[in-house]
Design a protein that fits this description.
single chain, mainly beta, Tick-borne Encephalitis virus Glycoprotein, domain 1, 3 domains, eleven-stranded antiparallel beta sheet, 14% helix
Length: 418
Amino acid sequence: MLRSMFSAISGLRGHQIMMDVIGNNIANVNTVGFKSGRVNFQDIMSQTLHGANAPQGNLGSINPAQIGLGITVAGIGVLQTQGNLQATGKTTDMAIQGDGFFVESDGTSQYYTRDGAFDIALDGSLGNPASGMKVQGWQADAAGKIDITQPVTNITIPIGQRTTAMATSSMTIGGNLDAGAADGTIVPTTTTVFDSLGVAHQVKINFTKTGANSWSWAAASDPADTGIAVAQVAAGAGVLPVNNGVLSFSTSGIETASTGLLSFTFPDGATATTPSVDFTQMTQFSGQGQPTGQTDGFTSGTLVTFSVGNSGEVSGVYTNGSTQVLGQIALANFLNSAGLLRSGQNNFAPTSASGSANIGIAGTGGRGTVTTGALEMSNVDLATQFTSMITAERGFQANSRVITTSDEMLQELVNLKR
């Protein structure tokens, strides 16, 4: 008879733990990136009254007879399901759509979180302002290149940093030249180029119809711009093939002589350059001629803002209108994310059950994508939690009734002797 009391006690303990987990879930209903917990019960050892027997003669098999001795908590699992995204409009707020975790570091150890309420610290590093931990990823070099084969490090966004100017090294001329134009027709276009000091200059390129499927081109500085001298490089004078100022088009209107070279010198002391000119985007079809030019290079500028793409790539925007890759935010996933250990401050730590972190770029390896200007809400479902609360309460009540009934039976047993 006493077995029922001890079984009921184990039931009380189990349902108390269930209520503790439910209470923690409800307490964190508005915690960013929180993942709810769930209790799983299992029965513990049973007392065997007699074992099982195989069929013998004319008798069938005999099943074992056992009396269970209660329950125990088999585990408290973490439900790593997606929470709803809430738009905030703040650039440094980030959420993960899909599986994956942001990687944070306190300088000694790495932790993993779904809480993307980040901010920029005084030193320019991107981090969690509540814990002080810094977001990990790969920093780009001066040319904007990222090497993801290197270990992750702190992501830095140096707002206010001034970038150096970059001289124009290549030009791309595209657009259409009118196939029906008369010989001698001149079609002009103007392109902006930059010297090594960041000064903008205007370069004019005139296209002249010289015959069927043939146009000549000539470059010169804008007469109003005395800070640049432009010369065309003759064939064989440069390392790239040149077309000696002539464009040849096929009968289908496609340009067949694709490159040229120009030489820029600057009286203001800037470094002389020899940019290549790409004409592969030129066509010759019937219609108005509208060639346009694009160049690389830019003047000096200050980093004023940034953006983060779905892949976690951080791009800086400068006052000169240019953009440059600053870094790449890393995401991590695990073979068994439910095996992660809660370590406080919305962070998880890896365990032998979760396996090691697989760190890489968002959108690859099942890591999900990054959404900026939003935060992931808690995945706690209040309707489910309140229903589970009722279940826990009734389970606790039923087990306490077993103890009361067992006590009454013991009392009757004692009363047999009056």
